[in-house]
Amino acid sequence: MLWLRSGFVQALLVMTVLGRDRAGLVESVADVVRRHGGNWLESRMARLGGQFAGILRVAVPAERRAALERALTALNQEGLTVVVHADEPPHALGRVARFAELEVVGQDRPGIVREIAHALAAAGVNVEELETHCRSAAMSGENIFHARFRIALPPEAHLEALRRHIEEVAADLIVDVALEEISAAGREHKCVQNSSEKPASRASTEP
Fold first, then answer.
1. Greatest CA span in the chain, whole angstroms?
2. Residue 46 has pLDDT above 50, yes or no
3. If pLDDT is split at 50, 70 and 90, which confidence band does 191 have?
4. What is the rounded radius of gyration, in angstroms, for the C-alpha atoms of the chain?
């Protein structure tokens, strides 16, 4: 994807980064981007186990795109794998009317993400962001699974119908759910909470 900025044609790129966690890893990528005149626009990065993984979006002068991609590939010699893709505007999703966040909390077990993701896909809902983690419950020591989905609702979606569908799945999984409509910027909230469980059940898992 190309765009015009300050009179110069810029190429927009999205890339994934993966390497064994170490100090200076992000600097290695940032240095390559900067040396090729690139601008680091946005990213999501984290250490998972012993690996450091991330996805980022950059803008680079169109005439320097090929050189940037070669330099990023050369980071393989430092144990860092970078895969670059052109940033293309979405076509299949169509117009999205609104967004929501779905929080899932419950005793850890296989299949939670799969079942929730399946329910969302069946409703035509697109997952834009997903964050998950496990932590020990303060009293029992059991692993408690937390997931937060940021989802894009198609224009024809009814939030109440989606909530009921997710609650049915949650009941089978024995997890708590909370579905909250938000603005595109995430500032305005309209809470639609699972009425069968008290929000305090989540707080009780915290130390």
1. 61
2. yes
3. very low
4. 21
- Quickly count helices (H) and strands (E) in the chain: 5, 10
pLDDT confidence tier of residue 7, bands split at 50, 70 and 90: low
Question: With respect to CATH, is domain 2-86 assigned 3.30.70.260?
Answer: yes
The DSSP annotation for 46-86 comes to EEETTEEEEEEEEEEEGGGHHHHHHHHHGGGGGTEEEEEEE
Instruction: Report the CATH architecture of 98-203.
Output: 2-Layer Sandwich (3.30)
d(CA 12, CA 38): 10
Q: What is the pLDDT of residues 56-90, one digit of tens each?
A: 999 999 999 999 999 999 999 999 999 999 997 66
Q: pTM for this one?
A: 0.73
What are the tens digits of pLDDT across the range 133-162? Answer: 999 887 777 899 999 999 999 888 899 999
Q: Give the side-chain half-sphere CA count within 13 A for 188.
A: 4
Dig out the tokens for 121 from the structure.
Answer: 């896909």
> How far are the Cα atoms of 21, 40, 89, 116 from residue 37, in angstroms, in the given order?
26, 10, 23, 42
- Domain residues of the chain, as ranges? 2-86, 98-203
| Nearest C-alpha neighbor of 52 from the set 77, 81, 14, 75 | 81
Task: Give whole-number Cα distances, 82 to 19, 36, 110, in Å.
Answer: 9, 16, 30
